Amino acid sequence: MKQYKLTAWPELPPQFQKTTMRRVVSELSQRFVSVRDLARSSGASVRDVEELVAKLEKDGMLMTRAMPQSVSQSGAWQQWWPVAAVRGMVRDWR
């Protein structure tokens, strides 16, 4: 999954001049974020966010990167030390 970050503030065409799309652009200007997270936090549909991201990418206004492994790994939380410690205590208790 990709994450995106804005490199310059865009002039939005009329179809994207909605409050939800402005929230998307604002969040993109602050950090790397995925399309799914943008849709969730802004209230916009995933389709609308994908269209905006495609336009911004076409215009050369986005940096992209692959999502870090630790964020996308489903089992990563199990290796977090408090969880590992509790799991060890439960295992010893049995």
Overview of the molecule:
With 94 residues, this protein is mostly helical. The chain has a single domain, classed as Arc Repressor Mutant, subunit A, CATH 1.10.10. It is 53% helix and 11% strand. It contains 5 helices and 2 strands; from the N terminus they run βαααβαα. A two-stranded antiparallel ribbon has the order 1-2. The radius of gyration is 18 Å and the shape is elongated. The N and C termini lie far apart (39 Å). 16% of the residues are buried.
State the main characteristics.
Arc Repressor Mutant, subunit A; two-stranded antiparallel ribbon; 94 residues
Distance between the ends: 39 Å
Structural domain tally: 1
Judging from the principal axes of the Cα atoms, what is the shape?
A: elongated
Which architecture per CATH?
Orthogonal Bundle
Oligomer: single chain
CATH class: Mainly Alpha
The main sheet orders its strands as 1-2
What's this model, at a glance?
With 94 residues, this protein is mainly alpha-helical. Helix content is 53%, strand content 11%.
Describe the protein's topology:
Elements: E1 2-6, H1 19-30, H2 35-42, H3 46-58, E2 62-66, H4 69-72, H5 81-93
